[in-house]
Each structure stands twice: as structure tokens, then as C-alpha cells.
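I have been asked to look over a protein record a colleague put together. Thanks in advance; the entry in question is below.
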Amino acid sequence: MHPLVTQLHFTRGEFARCFEGIDPEEARRRVEPMNSLSWTVGHLATQEYGFWVVMAQGRNIAPELFDRFGTGQPASTPPWQEMWDIWHSITREADIFLTALRPEDLARQLSYNGRTLPDNVGKMLLRNIFHYWFHLGKAHSVRQMLGHRGLPMYVGDMSAVRYMAEE
């Protein structure tokens, strides 16, 4: 597996760890001006869906995601379990494309609706990883504002993560 995909998988794990122990009703609560935690899960699923399912694979299996959680959509408080189910489903579908990537694929630009996208696959992967970390910080802030204690203080266990130079 390409090292950037390994990084994305690790980042997804940290995203899931951020939400361990969250009460489903609290996950739907908005601490303004922030979005609800449940919205955040839907929002990250939407980016992976757009990049790795729709644009990379040409499959439009959940078109409602863009209207519900896309950038610029209004804040909402969707059901917590529904969001986790969607996120798990979308990341599984995204991995069909991601786990097959070779180093040379990262320089390739995808086409969508007849036009070539401005960013190559590698930059899209970086954007996806960084987007997760951005929302991870916000989610931890929301949890602190909700009064949660004992939250993760640092990046989790990296003992299974190995650095691999690109070939």
C-alpha cells in the first residue's frame, strides 16, 4: 500500500478515536458556531466519497451526501449512528481505489464531468489527510466545550506504523 494511503488509514483511526465514548445525543448537539460532531463525520465521509468514489471510480452511489454535508451546506444535527454507518460504508468503497494505488498513480490527474481536475491524486490525498486533522482539532474543541475530560492528548499509538520511502 502506498505510504500516503497508510497515513490516511492512520488518520482515519485517529478520527474514530476522537469520538470514542461520545453519547449519541451529545454528538448531535451544536456548540455554536461549530457544527455538530455528527455533521463532522458526515462531512468527512462526503469528501472521501467525492474524491475516491465519484471522481476516482465514477460511481455515484450516495448523491445526497453533497447536499447534506458538502462544503458550504448549512449546519445540521444528523443521527450519530447513521453518520458512522455512512462513514464506514464510504471509506470501504474509497479503499477499493486507494489500496490499489501505485507511486506513479499519485502524479495522475483525475477527470470528472469531462474536465481534468487541477490537483493530482497525490495532492488530493494530502488534502484529504489534512482535512481530517483540521476537523479532528475542531472535534476535540467541541468535546472540551461539552465538558468531556480524559480526551486523547496526542497522536495515538504508532507502533504498527512504519516509515517507507517511496520507490
